[in-house]
């Protein structure tokens, strides 16, 4: 699924500035527990979370997660956005709930992390 | 001997590349109300074999050199372009994968296809077989260079250094209780290893396990240090702190077991997955701890890159 389609489906706003709308995102994951994301997140995925602190970006960065979407209309601090920009992590915000965001993406064919083998 | 693989790689590239990446963008175009004679200079000077006809950037037709020659034969140089052009032009969208162009060339046998944007159907470029070949070759070259550079950097560090034992040491100091800075060591190490040319998968595993360990230092101790040693066959990451130590290591390694205070949980950690995560991503992990004195965690990640070269 193209990143611009995801943006449309989530009715999201981009906070990190320019990005390639054609970038393909195949996998999604969602949690407010960053250790779960570290354990199961996949490179190139989108992460949906309602947790808004700097560790979300660090988690995305070390896990090679491309897009972080903050849900429920939560707006992250400027330092979070800056860190994301520095590390080429794209930040979205959406007013939708976690459930609705995940549901819409799943319905449109985005795969779950567990779709892939949980190897190292 | 590698024929089969090369073909696959090129096929792969035709799926990866988008038409807009290989098409020619500066297209010579002509308006439909021009006389055919007007085309002569363009065809001759630009050495092109076909010209899209546009009105206000909307593609309305195409004139090929064959059409032009026919007009010459029939002495129709004063006829209007719109009466001589091919009207139902086969086109391609700029965002289609290159393989669609390849298929259309095979199907119709034309020399070129105008490329239009999906959004407003306006002409944005033109694609010929030579554009496809150039595009694929360019992409192959870039991929080759990237790979070459990566391999060069990673393998030569160790080949260029002469010593009985070699390791590169990267030292990071981690402040306790400072969650704003937590993650700086792991992301710093990640960048460093990546720049040294290690494979993304290895870098990712090293970064995630270091990050979990770093979070532990910040959440539970007064501070500590992370020392990463890049050795010819492995990355060894040593994480030490000055206490308070872990009373029951076996318990600490159980997924879900946590002694994290509320403020750590609020930040998205402390769910009892840190050490199990490290164990998952490391090839080997050793944990030693003495209550009140401190903890020493060693993470080993093997460099499969080098293993294969032995």
Outline:
Chain A is α/β, with parallel strands linked by helices.
Strand element count of chain B: 10
Q: What is the N-to-C order of secondary-structure elements of chain A (H for helix, E for strand)? A: HEEHEHEHEHE
Approximately how much helix is present in the residues of chain A?
25-40%
Structurally, how many domains make up the residues of chain A? 1
Alpha-beta classification of chain B: alpha+beta
CATH architecture title of the largest domain in chain B: 2-Layer Sandwich
Q: How widely separated are the two ends of chain A?
A: 25 Å
Shape of chain B: elongated
Number of domains of chain B: 2
**Spatial extent as radius of gyration of chain B:** 31 Å
Estimated share of beta-strand residues of chain B = 15-25%
CATH class of chain A: Alpha Beta
CATH topology assignment of the largest domain in chain B: Heat Shock Protein 90
Indicate the mean pLDDT of chain B: 87
How big a fraction of the residues of chain A is strand? Answer: 15-25%
- The CATH homologous superfamily name of chain A equals HprK N-terminal domain-like
Number of strands of chain A: 6
Radius of gyration of chain A, in Å, reads 13 Å
